[in-house]
Every structure is written in structure tokens, then in C-alpha cells.
Amino acid sequence: MSKRNLLVLIMAFSSLAVGCNFELASDIKTENQNLQLEVATLEKWVAEAASVEEEIDEIRERLVKKKEELEEFKKEHPEVVEYAIKNKLE
Q1: Hey, which end of the chain has fewer CB within 10 Å, N or C?
Q2: Dihedral sign of CA atoms 30, 36, 40, 45 in order
Q3: Most distant CA pair in the chain: distance in Å?
Q4: pLDDT band with cut points at 50, 70 and 90 for residue 48
Q5: pLDDT tens-digit profile of 49-89?
Q6: pLDDT on residue 56
Q7: What domain range includes position 33?
Q8: Which of 31, 8, 28 is nearest to 20 (CA)?
């Protein structure tokens, strides 16, 4: 083969290889952007989860207080509780 033909073959193969590298780099960049978006979404969910846990704790505290108030009401007014239970069944 002549030097010119070899040079053309080398150029053709190198352009194919470079083209593949550009495509791979583009795919990697796109995948990286997708992963960054997923990470941002997960970080947002983690931040929201903390506030949801705080709300759940507050609701549990209010529930405990309401139960205590109900028990206290039952002790102070058993006739009202008995009347309410009786009328509920009817």
C-alpha cells in the first residue's frame, strides 16, 4: 500500500474514533445531567421528610394531650360519657 493510502486509512480510522469519543462524551454529559437532577430531587425529598417528621411529632404530642384531656373529662363527668355512649348505640 502506498503511503498516501495508509495516511487516508489512518485519517478515516482516527475520525471514526474521534467521532465515537464525541458521542460518548455527549452521552456521559447527558447522563451526568440526569444524575445531577435525580440527586437534586432526592435532596429535596430528604429536606421535606425532615419537616414531615417534625409535623408527625407535633401531631403525636397533640394526640397525647387530647387523650389526657379525654381521660380527665371521663373522670370528672362520667354521667356525660355514659349518656354519650348510650345515645351513640341508638
Answers
A1: C
A2: positive
A3: 112
A4: confident
A5: 888 889 999 999 999 999 999 999 999 999 998 898 888 76
A6: 93
A7: 3-89
A8: 28
Contacts for 73 with CB less than 8 Å, ≥ 6 apart: 80, 81
Got the DSSP string for 23-88? HHHHHHHHHHHHHHHHHHHHHHHHHHHHHHHHHHHHHHHHHHHHHHHHHHHHHH-HHHHHHHHHHH
d(C-alpha 80, C-alpha 74), whole Å: 8
Total count of domains within the chain = 1
72 in Cβ contact with 66 (< 8 Å)? no
Q: What is the pLDDT of residue 67?
A: 96
Name the amino acid, one letter, at 40.
A
Q: Which residue has the cell 409535623?
A: 55
